[in-house]
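3.2 Worked example (two chains)
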Amino acid sequence: MSETLPPALAERLAPLAPALIDQAQDGLVVKDAANGHWLYVNAVMAQWLGQPASALLGRVNTELFGEAGPALLVAEQGVPARAEPSLAEHKVELGGQRREFRVLRQRLAGEQGQALLAAVWHDLGPERRRGAQLRTALQQLEAVLRLKFMHAEWKKEQQAAVSARALLEARERDLEVLFEH
């Protein structure tokens, strides 16, 4: 089985990409690589930015991401032409909240041959929250197991103490009987 798609198959599958990205609830941006202007943005990305997609067209990262804009530009400039996609993680402020994203970028050629940059944004927040919830649940389970173990050990100690007390009482009775005679 091949690790990379044959070019003809990749070309046939290309129309599925936007639907798959939308289905995964990921953001998609296509921009002019020369000037950074946004040429396409999907509904998910527009929702994250709190604006209609039409209001985002022609804009650049520094207008939309504030302080994070220059770092995003540096990451975009690091994507080589005609190479494998580039993957990076970014923390940005959106809607007053700090958000984490994994961004997959790829340079493409436009219909007129212009250089384009496509970026698929994946929100890491849900994964991070699920991970934190799982860690909390695991810690709670470990605490319950520790308590059960401690309770079992306490019961053993209690039983040993009862047995020792019974043995001591039996010895005392033996001594009383011995001294009575």
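3.2.1 Second chain
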Amino acid sequence: MRTFYLLPIFLISFTTLKSQNHLQYKNIDVGFGGFSVMLKNHEIENESGGLTFNINNEFVINKNLISLNFISGGGAGSGYVSVGGDFSFYKVDALYGREFVATKWLSFDANAGIGYYHQKGKLYFTDYEFRESTINFPIKISMIFLSNNRVGFGFNANYDINKLNNTFAGNLFLRINILKN
């Protein structure tokens, strides 16, 4: 909950930079994919997985990328496979990164930052449930294929390091460029 107090600070900072013409809105990515997580610190340790939804807003200051990234994942029956259950999570991240242009139609983004991570789960046929939140240290790498100056598609790999469990999510996404190259 304490992490949500930081959100207004980030928004005020972005608004201030935008008003000084330093910050430019670069693109928005929307995608779907899957995740894998090794659940620990619960009644049963087990690997879980499922589907994800991803929205990433990217801004640029000079050649530096600033991103606000949201990923949500889960599904019924996705966790505790051997005994039955479900697991879901969402995360909101503020990321810093750089873009590496390989060719006119191919580029790569590398990002790292800090965020908020929330997970919940339930074992079927028992009354065991959990809800937990923590600070998250995300790493994200994206490969982008540009079909033209406005639209592209790609793949991003997201790895989250936190005290609850480490999560990997891979997403295919559609990119809409706002800032002309």
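3.3 Remarks
The chain has a mean pLDDT of 83.
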